[in-house]
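Why do we bother with holo predictions? Because pocket geometry can differ from the apo form. Keep that in mind while you read this record for guanosine-5'-triphosphate.
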Amino acid sequence: MLIDAYGRRISSLRISLTNRCNLKCIYCHNEGEEDSGSEITVEEVAQIARICARYGVDKIKFSGGEPLLRRDFDEILRALPPMRDVSVTTNGTLLAARAESLKESGLDRVNVSLDSMDRDRFTFITQCKGQFDKVLDGIDAALSVGLTPVKINMVYLKGINEDEVDRMIDYVRGKPLVLQIIELMNFHGAFKYHADVASLEQRIKEKADKAVCREMHRRTKYYLGGAEVEIVRPIDNSEFCMNCNRLRITSDYKLKPCLLKNDNLVSVRGLSDAEVEAVLIKTVGAREPFFKSETAKVCQPYKIYEP
Ligand SMILES: Nc1nc2c(ncn2[C@@H]2O[C@H](COP(=O)(O)OP(=O)(O)OP(=O)(O)O)[C@@H](O)[C@H]2O)c(=O)[nH]1
Ligand SMILES: C[S@@+](CC[C@H](N)C(=O)[O-])C[C@H]1O[C@@H](n2cnc3c(N)ncnc32)[C@H](O)[C@@H]1O
Ligand code: SF4
Ligand code: SF4
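The structure, written out:
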């Protein structure tokens, strides 16, 4: 097993396939990457997945940039060892045409980013015109081929989409969709749009029929009359970081222990399996939570919480 000094076991990989994107979202964290060189290859993805699988890693999330800009994404999926959960986070604009083949290539599910149901707001956030309908088509295609549950990622933005939460909850209700409401992290000076997710969560909690705490980040998912709503609150959240159980891989094949740090990246490009394995063990051992608690110093065993 891959365990760090805080008792956090690495059970999943988050692999960035590219820095390129066809949208220009005003807040984009680009998975914490700065400009990188050439993109990770099919063989490199297969290598890190194969090695990590030997240590019990059974989940892979692909992200970016826009991962569907990789024309060889099907090939990447087919090169993976058996996994319990393979998913991608995408802006959805290129999904409609590719959903079926991605499913056939082994993708289990997708997260689609959609911050607003209002065309003009969507255009402002993404700084691109003519893409909104493509995203809705992408979600429909994912549903029809069974890339489910489809999570709808909504970054909660002050003065932009705060009034759309109920509408988004109605959109996901009764379908294999989950609404994931995400606290904005400060990138590109977009923090002026930071909205209070803690108060929103309190309101959702009061209306919920049931709540379940996920192992990853100890995020809570609420059930509201047939709708599922997950809240992601990463900022100043030591519990979130203490339950961070995945290792990031950058789009130029470096191990990246934390989204918010770039001074501890380790390149594994060109290394043999044995060399990658040695670097992996050392890098995981040195991993630290970004936000730390004075009292809770180790990851606590997982249990299901009910409200
Ligand atoms: N600080 C921090 N934020 C994260 C991390 N992972 C995810 N997030 C936040 O959560 C948001 C949603 O992430 P997704 O790519 O949809 O994937 P996920 O929710 O982590 O994974 P699944 O729920 O399993 O699909 C991201 O945009 C980030 O804002 C992390 O490791 N650290
Ligand atoms: C960086 S994007 C990459 C994948 C894909 N292009 C997409 O937009 O879904 C991954 C996720 O990060 C979210 N995200 C980007 N910047 C963020 C920020 N500053 N704070 C919180 N979430 C952010 C996006 O909304 C998206 O759901
Ligand atoms: S679509 Fe994703 S990667 Fe592209 S700019 Fe928006 S958040 Fe960033
Ligand atoms: S340690 Fe915290 S900030 Fe860093 S990647 Fe994990 S959850 Fe995100």
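The pocket of iron/sulfur cluster (ligand 4) is lined by residues 234, 240-241, 244, 258-260, 289-290 (CB under 6 Å).
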